[in-house]
Specification:
single chain, 98 residues, mainly alpha
Length: 98
């Protein structure tokens, strides 16, 4: 068997590349829709659980409510990453006694 050979006019190494950060604006809508749909599902489960006396539906509603809170916190964190730092706020935080 003969060895594999070809001209090497390209790099096989790990070059240093600069990539722009991906634009994640579409995630806002996904988080908002997730919050809306999960909240609606929580309400439906609570109503159905109360009408039928089903503890499992009420428990699942509580679990889904924690998912809604998690999505809301993630959306808040995502929005806070877009807010520029404020040196006055940082000085006020550092000035607080411990």
């Amino acid at each position: 068997m003969s060895g594999h050979s070809h001209s090497h006019d390209h790099s096989h190494g790990f070059g240093h590349h600069h990539h722009e950060a991906p634009k994640l604006d579409h995630l806002n809508a996904a988080f908002i829709w997730g919050i809306i749909l999960n909240s609606a599902f929580v309400i439906i489960e609570v109503i159905a659980g109360l009408i039928t006396g089903s503890l499992s539906l009420l428990t699942d509603a509580g679990h889904n409510l924690s998912d809604v809170v998690g999505l809301a916190l993630a959306l808040l964190a995502f929005k806070l990453t877009k807010v520029g730092s404020n040196s006055n706020l940082l000085m006020a935080i550092n000035a607080q006694p411990y």
